[in-house]
Amino acid sequence: MLFALPMSNKAIIDIRALTKVYNLGQVKVPALNGVNIEVLEGSYVALMGPSGSGKSTLLNILGCLDRPTGGVYRLGGEDVSAMSDRQLSQIRGQRIGFIFQSYNLIPQLNVVENIHVPLFYQGRDIRSCYDHCAGLALKVGLRGRLDHRPMQLSGGQQQRVAVARSLANNPLMVLADEPTGNLDSTTGEEILALLDELHADGRTIIIVTHDPKVALRAERVIHLMDGLVDRVEHHERSMVAAANGAKGRAS
Amino acid sequence: MNGFSLIRIIQLGFKSLRLHKLRSGLTMLGMVIGVWAVITLVAIGEGASHDAQEAIKRLGAHNILIRSIEPAEEKSGASSTRNFVSEYGITYHDASRLQATLPGLKRVLPEMVQRRPVYYDRFQQDCQIVGTYPFYPDFTKALVVRGRFLTEFDELHRNNVCVLTESLALRLFGHQDPLESQVRVEDQYFRVIGLLREMSGVEQRPQGNEPEGKPLDSNVYMPLSTLRARFGEMDMDSRAGSFKLERVELTQVRLEFASVDLVEPSIPLIKAAMEKDRKKKDYELIVPLNILNAIKAQRARDTRMLLYIACISLLVGGIGIMNIMLATVTERTREIGVRRALGATRGDIILQFLVETLILCLIGGLAGVGGGWGFAWAREHWFHLTTIVTEWSVLAAFGLSLAVGLVFGLYPARRAAALDPIEALRHS
């Protein structure tokens, strides 16, 4: 391998020369033109870029919702670039936690049931992991609302449920797509604090945003432009937190 | 997918359907009505057919009836000329020839019917005098409710005895005891020895030209020999506007065979025996077995037609369900996307929507079965009409609703699963 990595700092995401071309009939539209990204375990990475920069495409591929046209994408050491739809579903269910801009909770389920959904598709009965799901709900501050339906919750509370849900199956990384986009600044701040907490616990977090203030919380900011990595910023403060988190996790 | 997940998916289906109660209810209604209609219609048809079959069976599947009928040419002749004696019908000779020649024939029951008024004290009733043999009740499943029926002895000695139908006795005697009383027919007195209750409903003794005329139960039974000796073979029809004399030796002959298998092959033999020395067609054959078979065949045809109708109504219900499920898939595109992102495979999505459709169909089917059963029960108990819910109709209706669910649920479910998760997530 070109870039050998120390064992303690395992690369969770390893993207090499990733390309994506959309076939719109006769016209081929390139969205990614050879992206190389490496994300270490326990790091906090922000993806930024104007619309049309390939940000969404990269996010979809990172989330195993889409397959690259060329290049290699290793997630947790496993090449997922050419997996079948079924295998990708499996990977999504086991290794990735999603947080969406518009919460995307399932309206007919209550809080705990919503948190349980990723586990449900791993074949785990809600009775056997109710405590786990309820524990996550308490951890994100939803005490007393465990049997509420999404309709009965505020936007901030719904996003808290989504955060708890993204953790349900103990994923390799949490993928947050504009998690504060639909929230006012105070509630947005609360959600970001929650993500900080997760990071401190040693979670790997990738956040997509166009808000520089949000991106500031990440230890690394990757700017995309025209389907390529434009530049990468590093923030010291978060690096320390990540190191602490990794230690905590290793012990 | 393992067992508990299936239970969970079913629970989920209920939750999703509860979200739109009215819509789910109305969608189900199509199924309910379809299944209800199948069960109810089959039950009503089965009940009617059962009644008819029972009536025919009472006539006896072992039996063949030969009835004297007035030939058409004599009927018209009688209307133009008065005092015309029409002579037709089965003769004693026919009866004895049948008895002598037909293989497998067990018994022959002759009947001679004449219309005459019967008197007791000051009371008069227009009656049918039936001259017959002692085994008449045994043959026709009629019930001797009091006293006794005619005997061989009566037949042999031409005794002036008679048996009345129960209702005639009531009309003639009121609350007096009719047994051992004497009734008068013309200038002859007859001792009442018993009361009889006729059981057959379908079978009608020939009532002359007035099928609705005298009630069937105004009968006086006496030995055939007595009737012949006292009144001869001449019957008088003196209704308003016409006066007609008829000479009929035997009004009706019933043939009983040893087994049902002998009935069918005997028909041409009977015809051959009757056609001999006969110039006009003055008799008819009534074969209860044939009527029974015809009713059964008719029933089978009706049932097939009901099934076609049922299939069509369930098809309509199924299309309604498919329509709703397609709308549901569009409406829940976002949810599908989320589920796919959270690890659901295409198979999971198909299963989820298929189960929802099946729940609609099964609950609708169950409600239909319950409704049909309830209706049948009400019809039977409150209106006293024979209604028979058959197991196969319940199973067929239920199975069909299940099949409809599978067939019409699969397409929307596959469409849901085929959605691109990225597109689905972006859907608003």
Task: Write up what this structure looks like.
The complex is a heterodimer of chains A (251) and B (428). By secondary structure, chain A is an alpha/beta fold. Chain A has a single domain (41-64, 85-250), classed as 3-Layer(aba) Sandwich (Rossmann fold), CATH 3.40.50.300. In chain A, 35% of the residues lie in helices and 27% in strands. In chain A, the strands form 2 sheets. Chain A has a 6-stranded mixed β-sheet, sandwiched between helices. In chain A, helix 3 (111-120) runs parallel beside helix 5 (155-167) and helix 5 runs parallel beside helix 6 (185-200). The longest helix of chain A is centred in the C-terminal third of the chain and has 16 residues, at 185-200. Chain A is globular. Residues 1-8 and 242-251 of chain A have low confidence and may be disordered. Chain B has 428 residues and is of the alpha+beta class. Chain B folds into 2 domains: 3-56 and 294-426, no CATH class; 70-281, no CATH class. Chain B contains 14 helices and 13 strands. Chain B has helices spanning 3-19, 21-59, 72-80, 92-101, 136-140, 152-157, 166-173, 224-231, 263-275, 288-331, 333-341, 346-382, 391-418, 421-426, and strands at 63-68, 85-88, 105-120, 123-132, 143-147, 161-165, 182-185, 188-197, 219-223, 234-237, 244-248, 252-257, 283-286. In chain B, the strands form 2 sheets. In chain B, strands 1, 3, 4, 5, 6, 7, 8, 9, 12 and 13 form a 10-stranded mixed β-sheet that branches. In chain B, helix 1 packs across helix 12, helix 2 (21-59) crosses helix 12 and helix 2 (21-59) runs antiparallel to helix 13. The two termini of chain B are 30 Å apart. The relative contact order of chain B is 0.19. The model of chain B is unreliable at 78-82 and 201-215 (pLDDT under 50). The interface between A and B is medium-sized, with 29 and 27 residues.
